[in-house]
């Protein structure tokens, strides 16, 4: 570029100097990479590491104590009850709610508290999902309150207090994360780090308690006050003698309906806790961070012009999946139609997953020949997106590999077991290929329309209208502007021969990402709304026994649901940047 300007451009020395100045001034990453005061960097780095260490230690202690209480309440017989767990969670939620109120009040009063915002943190899809799941969690708490009020005459009031406190916590946290998710706090950094880690720990504890409750409810071994496993009649009699509230009866007839309703809403509360944990972690990483809000943020527009095959095929998969899910949910409860319902469910999953695997493989091949640059700057939001994608997929990997081992070891040729094996293998392949496609897409720079046009030089129009340029020359009376004639140079955009192939690659990526997005929606909806073929097919229960298989499924399945939800958001971003 510099050589071309020196040969034929007007006022070459002036233009080259201006372009160099603009390259330095206009590059916020380069200008911000040097600290203003190098001597102040090491103490600040030590303070940041110390604050992170203290907050992490607090979180670890809260989580391990909570894990011990929740596990004891689930598997021990009398010593630890559900009321003990709820008292612990109530104290945590009250403490965390108080800190969030303090944070909101303090940062609104101090102007220098938040000087920077991370434009990548808290995207609208994440905050929208948080609000959606938060509303469902509030409905769940209302059902719990109404249900436990019916037991107030013979059971502890803690069971009513806990959902009330949790509802207040959800309201406050949803507002807090919606408004402050992008904050990069610059004052009270250690207190803020500890508060955000407390938020993370509270959400993980609520998630752990919800998964345990749903797991015990799924097995049918639950009690209204202690949540223990009734492994024998003797244990049951001992439990009743130690805790008379076991025989407590609801004072009105709608309690069974309310209980069934809030158990159906547990998946939304589980997803809410995971969403809030991810957002709290990003805020924790951004404490003390100094960034330019517009330095690495690309504005992309959403349009589906010319995109047809992907959305149409995806809608067909979604409609088919919904129809199969409705039939499955109705027919699986009947012994006469149970096998047919499972057959339909497995066939639909296998066909859909094969199509998704083929689409992900095609997209990865396209990325192999794409010339777009990779994202080079470090961003905690992008790193967390990829970590969540890989971490959440471990849930489905766990269930699939346990299923594969069970089928192979059992050596059964029953067609439902064979279909279960095929489905598990295809899920593993599909997860690997889809993760590869999404991560490759997230690492690419957004497509720039101007980069598709050939070399274009932008020069001062006024200088060309006058047929020359003005130069400042020293004289006796100061500086004098002199006019120099030049030859007009026309800048013509050069269309490269590869523009057509670039267009088709972009279109193919959009078709693939839109198709995968819709497919992940239906594969999120089915397990989130109650599809449990892992329990309807007795293979896992027969091979691993009920308690172990229930723990495997109810730990892995929430992560699988979150993976599909997170994949939808990531694929939407891949669609926008393609």
Features:
single chain, 578 residues, mainly alpha, two-stranded antiparallel ribbon, two-stranded antiparallel sheet, 20 helices, globular
Q: Overview of this structure, please?
A:
With 578 residues, the protein is mainly α. 69% of the residues lie in helices and 4% in strands. The strands form two sheets. The protein has a two-stranded antiparallel sheet with strand order 1-2. Strands 3-4 form a two-stranded antiparallel ribbon. A hairpin with a 2-residue loop joins strand 3 and strand 4. Helix 7 crosses helix 11 and helix 12 packs parallel to helix 17. It is globular, with a radius of gyration of 30 Å.
Summarize the structure.
With 578 residues, the protein is mainly alpha-helical.
Biggest sheet strand order reads 1-2
From the structure provided, what is the oligomeric state, counting identical versus distinct chains?
single chain
**What string gives the helices and strands in order?**
HHHHHEHHEHHHHHHHHHEEHHHH
State the major sheet. 2 strands, antiparallel
Number of strands: 4
Mean pLDDT: 76
- N→C terminal distance: 28 Å
Note the beta-strand portion: under 5%
Low-confidence parts: 1-41, 221-245, 293-297, 449-460, 463-467, 486-497
Helices, by number, come to 20
Task: Determine the structural class based on helices, strands and strand pairing.
Answer: mainly alpha
Helix content percent band: 55-70%
Write the layout of secondary structure elements.
Layout: H1 2-8, H2 12-25, H3 28-32, H4 41-75, H5 82-109, E1 114-117, H6 124-149, H7 158-180, E2 183-185, H8 189-219, H9 233-242, H10 255-264, H11 266-286, H12 309-331, H13 338-368, H14 380-410, H15 415-442, H16 461-465, E3 468-475, E4 478-485, H17 499-528, H18 533-536, H19 539-544, H20 546-577
Antiparallel strand pairs: 1-2, 3-4
Helix pairs in contact: 1-2, 4-5, 4-8, 5-7, 5-8, 6-7, 6-10, 6-11, 7-11, 8-11, 8-20, 11-14, 12-13, 12-17, 13-15, 13-17, 14-15, 14-20, 17-20
């Amino acid at each position: 570029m510099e050589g071309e300007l020196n040969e034929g451009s007007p006022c070459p020395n002036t233009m080259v100097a201006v372009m160099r100045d603009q390259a330095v001034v206009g590059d916020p990453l380069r200008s911000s990479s040097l600290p203003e005061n190098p001597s102040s960097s090491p103490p600040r780095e030590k303070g940041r590491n110390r604050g992170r260490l203290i907050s992490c230690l607090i979180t670890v202690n809260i989580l391990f104590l909570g894990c011990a209480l929740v596990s004891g309440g689930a598997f021990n017989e009398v010593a630890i009850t559900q009321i003990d767990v709820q008292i612990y969670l109530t104290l945590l939620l009250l403490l965390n709610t108080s800190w969030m109120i303090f944070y909101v009040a303090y940062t609104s009063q101090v102007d220098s508290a938040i000087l920077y915002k991370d434009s990548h943190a808290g995207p609208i899809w994440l905050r929208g999902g948080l609000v959606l799941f938060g509303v469902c969690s509030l409905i769940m708490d209302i059902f719990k309150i109404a249900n436990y009020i019916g037991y107030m005459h013979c059971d502890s009031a803690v069971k009513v207090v806990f959902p009330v406190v949790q509802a207040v916590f959800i309201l406050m946290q949803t507002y807090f994360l919606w408004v402050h998710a992008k904050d990069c706090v610059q004052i009270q950094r250690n207190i803020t780090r500890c508060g955000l880690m407390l938020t993370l720990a509270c959400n993980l504890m609520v998630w752990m308690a919800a998964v345990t409750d749903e797991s015990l409810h799924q097995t049918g071994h639950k009690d209204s006050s202690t949540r223990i496993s009734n492994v024998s009649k003797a244990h049951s009699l001992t439990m009743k003698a130690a805790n008379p509230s076991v025989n407590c009866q609801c004072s009105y007839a709608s309690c069974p309906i309310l209980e069934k309703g809030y158990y159906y809403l547990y998946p939304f509360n589980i997803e809410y806790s995971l969403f809030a944990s991810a957002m709290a972690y990003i805020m924790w990483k951004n404490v003390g961070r100094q960034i330019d809000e517009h330095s690495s943020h690309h504005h992309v527009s959403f349009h589906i012009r010319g995109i047809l095959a992907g959305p149409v095929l995806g809608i067909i998969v979604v409609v088919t999946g919904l129809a199969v899910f409705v039939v499955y949910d109705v027919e699986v409860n009947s012994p006469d139609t149970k096998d047919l319902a499972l057959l339909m469910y497995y066939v639909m999953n296998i066909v859909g997953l094969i199509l998704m695997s083929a689409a992900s493989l095609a997209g990865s091949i396209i990325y192999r020949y794409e010339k777009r640059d990779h994202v080079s700057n470090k961003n905690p939001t992008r790193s967390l997106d990829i970590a969540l994608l890989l971490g959440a997929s471990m849930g489905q990997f766990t269930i699939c590999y346990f299923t594969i081992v069970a089928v192979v070891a059992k050596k059964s040729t029953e067609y439902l077991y064979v279909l279960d094996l095929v489905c598990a293998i295809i899920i593993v392949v599909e997860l690997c290929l889809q993760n590869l496609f999404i991560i490759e897409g997230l690492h690419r720079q957004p497509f720039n329309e101007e980069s598709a046009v050939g070399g274009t030089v932008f020069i001062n129009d006024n200088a060309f209208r006058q047929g020359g340029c003005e130069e400042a020359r020293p004289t006796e009376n100061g500086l004098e502007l002199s006019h120099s004639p030049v030859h007009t140079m026309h800048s013509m955009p050069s269309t490269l021969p590869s523009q057509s192939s670039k267009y088709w690659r972009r279109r193919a990526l959009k078709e693939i990402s839109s198709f995968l997005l819709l497919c992940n929606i239906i594969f999120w909806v089915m397990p989130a709304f109650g599809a449990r073929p892992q329990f309807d097919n007795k293979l896992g229960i027969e091979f691993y026994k009920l308690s172990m298989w229930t723990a495997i499924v109810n730990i892995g399945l929430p992560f699988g649901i979150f993976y599909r939800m997170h994949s939808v958001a990531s694929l939407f971003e891949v669609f926008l940047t393609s």
